[in-house]
Design brief:
binds sodium ion; two-stranded parallel ribbon; Rossmann fold; ligase; ATP binding; about 5% strand; 2 domains; Tryptophan--tRNA ligase; binds adenosine-5'-diphosphate; about 325 residues; 3-stranded parallel beta sheet; mainly alpha; single chain; Tyrosyl-Transfer RNA Synthetase; 13 helices; tryptophan-tRNA ligase activity; globular
């Protein structure tokens, strides 16, 4: 049986990118595999978080995941800091991963920017903790957006080096499951950067909490070009903003970018944007309503998350114990 693990940071309000690239794809997996879904608050503090806001973002993220279709009868949903084995295995992996490996991580370079001396050391070793998140459950399938592919390769390097250094066959190989159509939703302001909930300098992103007017406004402002849409995908080469909007419409309407172009070829963005807005609003409105309903009873939500943590702990604890034995603790 496959065991699936995936995580999402409560580092802001979940975006359309998180939804199309990750959350939405988790829903059908619940029926096929044993699934663990985690709100990764330990990762969130790699960048400064206001404590009250972190707590409310954590709840909001959990509510979002449920509103998007995660079902507590079919999966385990919990908060990372509630299961100590993540941080414990993360330390072991800090001692397995090599500086050179982490130095190659493009997400660190993106997030640290020119500020390399000032970012937290946690941001640098973040991929080691991500490896621990997965391997502490011996999970073998990880659905993520394309932005996380390099981190998963690193997780496999860590697992292999651990197995090799200690002469064991203990940690499994992880298969990334990069999802097709909207594996990377780009920023509406700059089609060469990914849409991210945790980029404070870019407010163009569509949040799952946005109402219809706000969605319309953000799509209206989205950067485009003066050309009309072509009838084939290859012709969108060099037009990243146009490519992104076409990809988003394809993803929310459950079709392909090719099919979107077949339908809208010859239209300019003045005509295309209202179509996109309409599709987004009708798709996201029910999710937003359910999220708001769940947040009216935070006590019930917290209790569900505690139950989830107990279920997760029951799997992680024996694997951590065995790891400690292997290491010599
Ligand atoms: P963020 O960068 O928005 O803070 P996270 O690091 O919490 O996102 O990632 C949560 C999940 O959402 C991961 O599986 C990641 O691959 C996916 N994801 C994040 N941003 C995007 C995006 N712009 N397009 C597609 N998937 C994304
Ligand atoms: Na990220």
């Amino acid at each position: 049986m496959q065991r699936v693990f995936s995580g999402i940071q409560p580092s802001g309000i979940p975006t359309l990118g998180n939804y199309l690239g990750a959350i939405r794809n988790w829903v059908p997996m619940q029926d096929e595999s044993e699934c663990l879904f985690c709100v990764v608050d330990l990762h969130a503090i790699t960048q400064r978080q206001d404590p009250k806001e972190l707590l409310s973002n954590t709840r909001e993220m959990a509510a979002t995941l449920l509103a998007c279709g995660l079902d507590l009868n079919k999966c385990t949903l919990f908060v990372q800091s509630h299961v100590p084995a993540h941080a414990q295995l993360g330390w072991v992996f800090n001692c397995i991963a090599r500086m050179g490996w982490l130095n190659r991580m493009t997400q660190f370079k993106d997030k640290a920017g020119k500020n390399r001396e000032e970012v937290s050391t946690g941001l640098f070793v973040y991929p080691n903790l991500m490896a621990a998140d997965i391997l502490v459950y011996h999970a073998n399938v990880v659905p993520v957006g394309d932005d996380q592919k390099q981190h998963l390769e690193l997780a496999n390097d860590i697992a292999q080096k651990f197995n090799h250094d200690y002469g064991v066959d203990f940690f499994p190989n992880i298969q990334p499951m990069i999802q097709g159509v909207a594996a990377r939703v780009m920023s509406l302001r700059d089609g060469t950067k990914k849409m991210s909930k945790s980029d404070p300098s870019d407010q163009s992103r569509i949040n799952l909490t946005d109402d219809a007017d706000l969605i319309a406004d953000k799509i209206k402002r989205a950067k485009t070009d003066p050309d009309v849409l072509p009838d084939n995908l290859a012709a969108l080469e060099g037009r990243p903003e146009a490519r992104n909007l076409v990809g988003i419409l394809a993803a929310v309407t459950g079709t392909t970018p090719e099919a979107v172009l077949a339908e809208h070829a010859g239209k300019g963005f003045g005509a295309f944007k209202p179509v996109l807005t309409e599709a987004l609003v009708s798709h996201l409105t029910p999710i937003r309503a359910e999220m708001q309903r769940l947040l009216t009873d935070p006590g019930a939500l917290d209790a569900e998350l505690r139950r989830g943590a107990e279920k997760a702990d029951a799997i992680a604890e024996p694997i951590l114990k065995k790891t400690y034995e292997i290491v010599g603790f």
